[in-house]
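Exercise 7. Given the encoded structure of a 285-residue chain, write a plausible sequence.
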């Protein structure tokens, strides 16, 4: 079923309507978000408003809103408190696709830092709206160790990127970033990480629940940056709207270890943290 023509009743059953209709940036107060259980269709925006709140939050927004180089370190205690674009997920209940172990030129035949395990969805692409604009889900891929890091915290062993590309107009992206910890339990991430295909090949994967790839807590850290892998000319495209979840998700220890061991010891598919001057404004929602 195309998400574009999702009937209202079905959308309601998926928890996507009526809040899934495009909304004004930052108009969804945090207090409106359902607590626990079903995924809120709209991730909460900042709840403060009015001149007093503006004065209070101004001092923390000392960085730049220009697109910086990614990935960056995120300081949870120095965020810029202001409204953020409304983010609404229009994901279907489950999707099928291909799991690919990408083997990029010019290094072929063994995993390089620019290769990854990626899930490419077959059929109509799920989409999100970000600030009322439509972005379609291009792929879900993984980096090991993580690329983003929270200040004062260790690197997570794996980071998942759900890459959404702007559907119309100028090129642009929204990437949902989920840091993964190794756990005794399995999760939906194990469906993509547990038994990857050989380098340069693909295999079918069915019935992936995209929403289950996201952590339960919907707090996100937002900034404008770049892609973390270059195109053929060596350019790291920007702007990219980064949405990094504050809570980590999980995958089983076996899957995390197996994924990390695809690259030689001490190597991985990671771009190092980028130091930007001035640093980006990072907002929390
Ligand atoms: Zn990535």
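Solution.
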């Amino acid at each position: 079923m195309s998400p574009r023509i999702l009937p209202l009743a079905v959308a309601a059953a998926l928890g996507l309507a009526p809040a899934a209709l495009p909304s004004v940036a930052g108009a969804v107060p945090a207090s409106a978000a359902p607590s626990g259980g079903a995924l809120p269709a709209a991730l909460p925006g900042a709840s403060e408003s009015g001149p007093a709140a503006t004065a209070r939050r101004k001092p923390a927004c000392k960085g730049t809103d220009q697109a910086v180089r990614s990935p960056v370190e995120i300081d949870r205690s120095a965020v810029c408190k202001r409204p953020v674009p409304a983010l609404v997920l229009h994901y279907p209940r489950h999707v099928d696709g291909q799991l690919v172990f990408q083997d990029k030129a010019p290094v072929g035949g063994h995993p390089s830092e620019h290769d990854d395990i990626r899930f490419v969805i077959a059929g109509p692409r799920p989409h999100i709206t970000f600030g009322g604009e439509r972005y379609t889900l291009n792929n879900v891929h993984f980096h090991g160790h993580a690329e983003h890091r929270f200040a004062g915290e260790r690197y997570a062993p794996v980071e998942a990127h759900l890459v959404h590309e702007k559907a119309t107009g100028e090129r642009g992206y929204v990437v949902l970033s989920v840091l993964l910890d190794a756990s005794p339990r399995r999760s939906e991430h194990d469906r993509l990480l547990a038994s990857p295909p050989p380098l340069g090949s693909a295999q079918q994967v069915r019935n992936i629940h995209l929403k289950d790839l996201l952590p339960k807590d919907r707090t996100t850290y937002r900034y404008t940056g770049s892609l973390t892998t270059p195109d053929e000319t060596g350019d790291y495209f920007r702007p990219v709207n980064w949405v990094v979840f504050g809570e980590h998700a999980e995958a089983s220890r076996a899957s995390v270890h197996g994924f990390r061991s695809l690259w030689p010891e001490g190597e991985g598919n990671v771009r190092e943290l980028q130091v930007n001057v001035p640093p980006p404004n990072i907002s929390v929602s």
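Remark. Residues 1-41, 51-58 have pLDDT under 50 and may be disordered. Students should compare their own answers with the one above.
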